[in-house]
Amino acid sequence: MCSSTLIQMTSLNCEQVGNVRKNIFLAYKTLGVVFGGLVTSPLYVYPSMNLSSPTEADYLGIYSIMFWTLTLIGVVKYVGIALNADDHGEGGTFAMYSLLCRHADIGILPSKRGYSEEEPFLHEQSATAIRPSKLGKFFERSITARRVLLFMAILGMCMLIGDGILTPAISVLSAIEGLRGPFPSVSKPVVEALSAAILIGVFLLQKYGTSKVSFLFSPIMAAWTFTTPIVGIYSIVRYYPGIFKAISPHYIVHFFLRNKKQGWQLLGGTVLCITGAEAMFADLGHFSKKAIQIAFLSSIYPSLVLTYAGQTAYLINNVNDFSDGFYKFIPRPVYWPMFVIATLAAIVASQSLISATFSVIKQSVVLDYFPRVKVVHTSHQKEGEVYSPEINYILMVLCVGVILGFGGGKEIGNAFGVVVIMVMLITTIMLTLVMIIIWRTPPVFVGMFFIPFVIMEGSYVSAVFTKIPEGGWLPFAVSMILALIMFVWYYGRQRKIEYEMANKITMERLGQLLAMPEVQRVPGLCFFYSNIQDGLTPILGHYIKNMSSLHTVTIFVTLRYLLVSKVDQRERVLIKRLGPRGVYQCTVQYGYADNLSLKGGDDLVAQVMRCLKRHIAMSTDRRSSVSTEEEIANLEAASLAGVVHVRGKMRFYVGDDAGCFDKVMLRSYEFLHSICRSALPALGMPLQQRVEIGMLYKT
Fold first, then answer.
1. Lowest CB count within 10 Å: 12, 259, 263, 401, which one?
2. Are both 519 and 387 inside the same structural domain?
3. DSSP of 388-416, one letter per residue?
4. Average pLDDT in the 438-442 region?
5. In which domain, by residue range, is 526 found?
């Protein structure tokens, strides 16, 4: 008995040790992927501040603000709370939106809401609360509130894309600025040209993926994370050993009382100390919650606190060196090694945000909130490692344009602050909704979270808004253009779905069409793609009338993208037999973090055939006199006769009698639709097997 208990305890301890080792290893890997933007922020925080004759008291107040910003937003909000608001392991503003949609009926896309009783898997994923909260009921009743919530989720994604433009620009530019210290003859245009050349090289290498070099990311960022605080400690001991007295919040109060409006405006620079913290939540799907918490609390947070303390200690004794606040506090003997590490760390930080942008775009395309662009999976081992050629080159042009157009880190910092704090404020609001609607947190605790963070982040927002004329307009312009594209795309897709649902082909109507004497059943297997599940697309009637035929085996395929992160492989393909002989319905389900691209059209055909044969063999619903063996034989014969993939291409005909709003929105949608990619190439369909059927719909 004792021996058995001892063995169980030993086995349990070994498992615990294994989990600890795994989390520590994952925490080490997060340094190169998650925290690149955050841990390199000392490169540009002080240079981005518009200080005027700063004093020792000013620097102590600024350090106190940065310390409490890192502590409250980094430790309390993200590590302590936000990481628990995941959607099946995925993080970010859109993951929270999907989480809210699954626990309350607050989604607004008909194609993404409401699951049929024939899909028990989706009921397990939904887990809707038995008694919706009052706030949940309000959102369910108010279409305006639901639209605002969707807009916030979209805006959070757009701001993250803006982050992907600004982080590479400000990180690399700030690192290369280190050349001007030892070599004053190096002009500012030369620094800008070198920074632009480095970024162009980074973007041109994206198509090869990061798998071959990603093993270097963590060592580079570990070198940066652990060397900068060492320099910080040296600076503290040498210049100002009493720097940590600034942890007392009364230094913040005195700072604002003394500087008044200028102190409030300086918040636009101090907010950059928390740049990249949102990546902790957004990249949650690539690592475990425990690993991110270990990495932040054991290395990132102490590193930043000590590095900023060292910078501040140096600046207290050299009050006018803030414009180059990082490289000036580096001791001469280690200047060049730190320059190399800083440049490499800036490149890794850039790569992290570029990869995150690709991931966000992929999720938006999968959920049909963004026009289809090409998404390539650059790794067979990592599903999240993706690349989009169109997005890549747009980012490259914008990043290089930011460097050459803005020129200095201070101007880019003005733009950067808007992006950083807007994402965090949106996260705070959506976290509060999660607390109320899903977690059912007591109102007192919700208030203890919401009020302090809204006041703090609202103060930051009010300060960075003053920077809009000085560069802050850029992320707003990018975000509004992206949001407009998303809204136009959503509106056009919704109008098409509404038309299809109003004019869908019922089983009775399909029987009448097939009973027409001129309609023949021709040999072959046809995959007919449709956007609706409850009924058949009206393009089918258009097809049968004009072609006067239908294949002996026709499978109506709907690609259904769900507001969940991943769909179990066993639930990927759902099959249902329809009324007429040889006609079936197939639903291919994907979550927003799933790999949509298949390795070839034959993979989809083989997968659907296997599921269809299994469905026929197990089905007890015999709607015809055909035996199971004969039905399977007919299916195999049709497959041998040839496979064809038919996709309807319904276009809007916007007449002169249409309203002005519809004219603008639908014509814009038609333009976007004409330049975006087809959904079929994403599934790898052979070109020679594809057929497109056009149909005009008058609005």
1. 12
2. no
3. -HHHHHHHHHHHHHHHHHH-SHHHHHHHH
4. 90
5. 489-698
